[in-house]
Amino acid sequence: MQVNIQQAHKEFAGYVHMLETGQEPQIIFARHGKPVARLTLCGTQPVARRIGVAKGLLSYPDDLDQYNDEILELFGVTNNTAHPRQNVHGLS
Q: Residue 2: beta bridge partners?
């Protein structure tokens, strides 16, 4: 999307909202019809590059859940119906 700088000055928050909600991937600011600046979100990576980035790199000890009941008691949780940790994706 390309907008005039004067228009952008009046509606800047709206353009940021468009980026945050994914309505626009970028906003190009133009002066006299010529692009001069680009507005994009900071620090984002496409989902495909984030999901599974650490697969196979992390592990946890077998006794990780050893103190779960005591921790739940500290938080006032009773009648815990949580299932024991299942070995997901072959992690151990």
A: 28
C-alpha–C-alpha distance, residues 19 and 8, integer Å: 14
Q: How would residue 9 be classed by pLDDT, with cut points 50, 70 and 90?
A: confident
pLDDT band of residue 78 (cuts 50, 70, 90) is confident
Query: Of 85, 1, 84, which is closest to residue 35 (Cα–Cα)?
Result: 1
- The mean predicted confidence, pLDDT, of the chain is 80
Alpha-carbon Rg for the chain, nearest whole angstrom, is 24
Query: What DSSP string runs through 2-64?
Result: EEEHHHHHHHHHHHHHHHHTTS-S-EEEEETTEEEEEE--SS---HHHHTTTTTTT----TTT
Question: Distance between alpha carbon 27 and the CA centroid of its chain, in Å?
Answer: 21
Instruction: Give residue 92's pLDDT.
Output: 44
